[in-house]
Design goal:
Elements (H helix, E strand, L loop, with lengths): L1 H19 L9 E9 L2 E4 H14 L3 E15 L3 E14 L11 E12 L2 E13 L12
Pfam family, one: SnoaL_4
InterPro entries: NTF2-like_dom_sf (IPR032710), SnoaL-like (IPR037401)
Protein name: Nuclear transport factor 2 family protein
């Protein structure tokens, strides 16, 4: 139970970084050689992950709230863990308040964690969209 709580706290802190700052600190939640995958697009290492969020910021003002729920640890040992969570994303370009009141997407997030120097970090994150309107414009590349 303590591991589940810790990993959920880590996941929500990462999304807080994206929603409340420019997201450029997100790579600190990952190992230096991590993979971040949105749909069929993959980004590898801190540099590429930082670039994803710098590009998102360069688009201009955006309001987003990434709501993570139902985190379930599917495997774990003393130095590795895998967890699946659900992500509900409310997002729209522009300044608040926005008129969007339905989720932009609902996704599964599979995180592989590794314990390094006493801290859990994400070694790989795969985000698979389950529900999305056909005209959705996400701020990160997915294809």
């Amino acid at each position: 139970m303590a591991l589940t709580t810790h990993l959920l706290t880590l996941a929500t802190a990462l999304w807080f970084e994206v929603d409340h700052t420019d997201g450029t600190g997100v790579s600190a939640f990952f190992t230096a050689d991590a993979e971040l995958r949105f749909g069929t697009r993959s980004f590898h290492g801190s540099r590429e992950i930082d670039h994803v969020y710098a590009s998102r910021t360069a688009r201009g003002p955006r309001v987003s709230r990434h709501l993570v729920t139902n985190l379930h640890v599917t495997s774990a040992d003393t130095t590795h863990a895998t967890a699946v969570s659900n992500l509900l994303l409310f997002a729209e370009d522009g300044e608040p308040p926005r008129s969007t009141v339905t989720p932009a997407v609902v996704s599964d997030v599979v995180d592989d964690f590794v314990l390094r120097d006493g801290s859990w970090l994400i070694r790989s994150r795969h985000i698979t969209t389950l529900f999305a309107p056909p005209d959705i414009q996400l701020a990160v590349p997915t294809h």
